[in-house]
Structure to design on (221 residues):
């Protein structure tokens, strides 16, 4: 299923190799790093073999994570710009074969996954033209994302720190407005110990027969 010079892939998901020699008992392949690998023909007969040279036009898949709150009109505009780019470079891409869809939503990560499928003119037998064309497309996508104000950032996660966690932090960090706005800081004395008010609440609850963990900043009923 291959000739000398063909770029092939043995097994799905494996690295691609170029056929160097064909023999009666074995075949030799060259990896991307110049390493030569020989396979007995009895082993090759049992493997699925992908042959890039004998394939027709092939497509690329590019996935993007964007904010879940991104307006749909910006996503549509991004697709239109990709379509215009492929039409302007129709010697490298099929201008009528751009598919751009929202394929997943992850509210925990505050993300939408947008996936682009676009067809090359030709196959991946020769890597340099393929990588060159793809690099120009990715650069255009990046420029369009910046221009449209499309972005992604991780969802804000709540953080709760107790007195013991904060005791070793320098005053400059403890006095930071960002810290105060983002975490729940329990009342403390200057030495990092629980404040008198918190100790009074603990003692009152102990008198009422409730269990209080003295090593924690949170009363446990």
């Amino acid at each position: 299923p291959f000739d000398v010079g063909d770029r092939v892939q043995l097994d799905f998901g494996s690295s691609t190799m170029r056929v160097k020699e064909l023999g009666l008992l074995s075949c030799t392949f060259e990896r991307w790093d110049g390493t030569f690998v020989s396979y007995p023909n009895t082993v090759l007969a049992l493997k699925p073999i992908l042959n890039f040279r004998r394939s027709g036009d092939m497509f690329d898949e590019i996935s993007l994570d964007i904010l879940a709150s991104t307006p749909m009109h910006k996503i549509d505009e991004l697709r239109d710009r990709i379509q215009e780019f492929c039409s302007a470079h129709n010697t490298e891409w099929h201008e009528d074969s751009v598919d751009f869809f929202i394929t997943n939503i992850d509210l925990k990560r505050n993300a939408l996954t947008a996936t682009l499928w676009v067809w090359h003119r030709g196959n991946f037998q020769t890597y340099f033209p393929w990588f060159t064309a793809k690099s120009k497309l990715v650069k255009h996508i990046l420029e369009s994302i910046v221009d449209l104000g499309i972005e992604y950032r991780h969802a804000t996660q709540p953080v709760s720190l107790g007195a013991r966690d904060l005791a070793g932090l320098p005053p400059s960090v403890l006095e930071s407005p960002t810290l105060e706005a983002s975490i729940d800081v329990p009342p403390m004395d200057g030495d990092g110990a629980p404040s008198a008010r918190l100790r009074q609440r603990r003692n009152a609850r102990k008198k009422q027969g409730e269990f209080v963990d003295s090593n924690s900043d949170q009363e446990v009923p």
